[in-house]
Specification:
This protein is α+β, with helices and mostly antiparallel strands. The chain folds into 3 domains: about 5-70, Nucleic acid-binding proteins (OB fold (Dihydrolipoamide Acetyltransferase, E2P)), CATH 2.40.50.140; about 70-140, Orthogonal Bundle (DNA polymerase, domain 1); about 150-205. It has helices at about 30-40, 70-80, 90-95, 100-105, 110-115, 120-130, 150-165, 170-185, 190-205, and strands spanning about 5-10, 15-20, 25-30, 45-55, 60-70. The chain has a 5-stranded mixed barrel with strand order 1-2-3-5-4. The chain is globular and about 55 Å long.
């Protein structure tokens, strides 16, 4: 079982990074909320705590690594996937919000917040709360890597997208909420067109 990967970042994909560790290169999937911190590292050395599991289908079993910056984040992930029907792959994609915010949402039974995560609908949000409420308090203390300030480029992208939504007769508060949710779902957005496409996708799946 691979519990830790340490090496140099070789390449980055949309949902994963490749890490050169000695003679081996590992593909490690990263929850979207943590990818911004990985982006800041460029090609520097990195050390990840990994969750190692096997993705199986009738014909094969494929080993998969999901990476975290510390043991507490991994522990939160393991709590999250203890909910029936929430598998590791789906959980990795769903974690677009800061872990502390998700923990607070679970404890306060905030289904609206949990539904902002990809793949989490009303029923699944209720199941997560029923299973984990009162058990994730310490994860609300995580100082998530959200202190990274938005760049001027990101602000310009958001302002351009907001202007379009206002022209389409959306109210400003509603438009801002949609943009914030879209940017949390996909931190790698670079243009206003990508941002508006993400807003459209999230509305289409409500």
């Amino acid at each position: 079982m691979i519990s830790r990967v340490k090496g140099k970042i070789r390449a980055k994909k949309e949902q994963a990074i490749l890490v050169d560790a000695g003679e081996f290169t590992y593909e490690v999937f990263i929850p979207p909320v943590l990818m911004a911190s990985i982006d800041d590292k460029g090609t520097e050395d990195i050390e990840l705590i990994t969750y190692h599991y096997y993705q199986t289908d009738p014909s094969k079993s494929v080993p998969v690594l999901i990476g975290f910056l510390n043991e507490v984040e991994k522990e939160f992930f393991e709590k999250f996937i203890s909910v029936s029907g929430v598998g590791p792959k789906a959980a990795c994609k769903a974690l677009t919000l800061p872990f502390s915010a998700i923990a607070a949402g679970i404890d306060s039974a905030d289904t609206a917040l949990l539904k902002k995560m990809p793949g989490i609908g009303e029923q699944r949000a209720r199941e997560i709360i029923a299973k984990l409420q009162g058990k994730v308090g310490k994860f609300g203390l995580i100082q998530d890597k959200k202190g990274r300030k938005s760049s001027r480029v990101e602000e310009n992208v958001k302002e351009e997208a907001l202007s379009v939504l206002l022209q389409l007769q959306y109210k400003k508060k509603e438009a801002l909420d949609m943009l914030e949710t879209a940017m949390s779902r996909n931190p790698r957005i670079k243009t206003s067109e990508e941002l508006l496409n993400e807003v459209y996708r999230q509305k289409a799946h409500k």
